[in-house]
Specification:
Elements lengths: L1 H35 L1
Length: 37
């Protein structure tokens, strides 16, 4: 049961990490643009 939860957590963390990295890249670009302007 713990192993199944860990495997599920790995899958979710993998997808969440991609979404989080993409979100921070977009937000970082908008922040850089806003600071530049």
């Amino acid at each position: 049961m713990y192993y199944r939860y860990f495997e599920r957590l790995l899958q979710h963390s993998f997808i969440d990490s991609i979404i989080t990295i993409y979100y921070y890249l977009v937000k970082g670009k908008t922040i850089k643009i806003s600071i530049f302007i």
